[in-house]
Amino acid sequence: MLPRLLIRGLAEKHRASTNVLAAHLRYSQEHYHSNWEQQRRHKRHVAATLIGAGAGVAFWLNFNRQADAASSLTETDKDLDKFGAYQNGLPEYTHDDVSKHTTMKDRVWVSYRHGVYDITDLIPKHPGGDTIMMGAGGSVEPFWALYAVHKNPHVLEWFETYRIGNLAPDDVGASVKDMSDPYSNEPRRHVTLKPSSKKPFNAEPPVSLLVDNLITPNELFYVRNHLPVPDVDEANYELEIYDEGTQKEKTFKLADIKKYPKYTITAAIQCGGNRRSEMAKVKPVKGLSWGQAAIGNATWSGTRLCDVLKDMGVQEGKTNALHIQFEGLDTDPASMPYGASIPIEKALDPHGDVILAYEMNGEPISRDHGYPLRVIVPGVVGARHVKWLGRIIVSKKESDAHWQQNDYKGFAPNVDWDTVDFTKSPAIQELPVISAICDPVEGEKVKVVDGKIKIRGYAWSGGGRKIIRVDVSGDGGKNWQEADVLESDDNRHPRAWGWTLWSAEIPVLNKGSTTQVCVKAVDSQYNTQPENFENIWNLRGVLANAYHRVNITLVK
């Protein structure tokens, strides 16, 4: 590892590089738990940066909800040239002029391309709250280099209304001209994956491929990244575990983790926004437009978290902690990591099967899926399965990360972005029962044989609840029958962490007509899916588990 003083020196140089980054660091320092914790975070995250870890950004994370739905991967830079372009008749300001406006008292200015913007009046309206202050006095271009999804007319038209002038020609791009693309070192992905966003990369496989294997091949497993993928050198990798109650800390190399007994589980991971695109048909939602393939089923091998915590003295009845926090090595410019947490009873329960995984389907975990180490929390929403795991904190409180406090929560259908209060809803942990038809797909022509058609798909329920029945219909839900075949990995029963693949032959009406096929699943606690999305609509488009419906045309 690099000497601590060298790391600190490089960190200081990094902090001073731009006004934007300095503002980020001032913000982040307010959120550190202690001086010790601040030093430890800087040490680890700067070291990760030195070995190629990408930088992300919290600046526009809430705003991302608004932009995701309107963004398009087919937009060209030419379409956006009018935004931030030089405008005749406006006053001209230098970068130094902009840097003097960093407080509400002095008015808050930022720059974008040739434009200068006074965002003081925007701050109270900003979907991400006052986090926009982290860019005060500098350019927003570094942030948009990280979150290209915000470079779309929906965002930029709104942003242009705060334009007050032009940036001096010599200063245009000055604060970002030496900034390399944080996504330039991303891993190569399978061409079959269908992106819902490219920066950060998020993609799902063709849905028909999901049901070809009970175990999803690594290359076809959906990818959900919130920030650039860090490039971690295993030789320099460290996992820190800190107990806030006892103030005990311990650092593990990957080899140390592998000394513990190796456990293998089969578990499905599902994004909280899986099937969001269907919910959006009821009313627009904010988030990536996932189909029904933001889910995958894999075998994961690693060390049980409860074993490692036991060696730290963290055991049931011997700790006052209530939560286990996880931090990744994917960070924003303020060195703030992706973070999440789970209740401590899940982590300490040997039957909870929470593992620190270093293998996926018998191979070292790939970079996109968390190399060299990620936490697997079976039965729980994918957002808690933190990748590129860098730190574990035993705490009385939940993670204060954005993704735990201000995202991945459900709300009533009447709640909108003007009335939402994220403090009033708990963070999603276990997911509800869900199913989907993977074959045939929407709009497909399907051959009728002896008055029947074949359909197949997946079903899964959170919390280790086993799928006991899958009901299918060939006439839009008027008549139902059970699926003929249910395939699953029952080795961990009754803790059914993996999904179930199902298939059925169902009777249909006249050839040449159109019909709607439907599916709903029932789990071991007799939970079933809601009939429609109208009753479960929520502004973030999460927990989208209504009946899955596919319209097809019947042919001879």
| Approximate helicity band | 10-25%
- Average of pLDDT: 84
Whole-number radius of gyration? 25 Å
Weakly predicted, low-confidence segments: 1-76
What is the end-to-end distance?
67 Å
Instruction: Tell the overall outline.
Output: globular
Class based on secondary structure composition and strand pairing: alpha+beta
If strands are numbered along the chain, what order do they take across the biggest sheet?
Answer: 9-8-17-12-13
Q: Largest beta sheet, briefly?
A: 5 strands, mixed
Number of strands: 26
Oligomeric assembly: single chain
Number of helices: 13
Q: What percent strand?
A: 25-35%
List the helices and strands and how they pair.
Blueprint: H1 4-15, H2 19-29, H3 35-50, H4 61-70, E1 92-93, H5 95-99, E2 109-112, E3 115-118, H6 141-146, H7 153-160, E4 163-167, E5 194-197, E6 202-204, H8 207-210, E7 223-224, E8 239-243, E9 248-252, H9 254-257, E10 262-270, H10 276-279, E11 295-304, H11 305-311, E12 323-331, E13 337-343, H12 344-348, E14 355-360, E15 363-364, E16 374-376, E17 389-395, H13 402-405, E18 434-439, E19 445-447, E20 452-460, E21 467-473, E22 481-482, E23 485-487, E24 500-507, E25 514-523, E26 548-555
Parallel strand pairs: 1-4, 8-17, 19-26
Antiparallel strand pairs: 2-3, 3-4, 5-6, 6-7, 8-9, 10-11, 11-14, 12-13, 12-17, 14-15, 14-16, 18-20, 20-24, 21-22, 21-25, 23-24, 25-26
Helix pairs in contact: 1-3
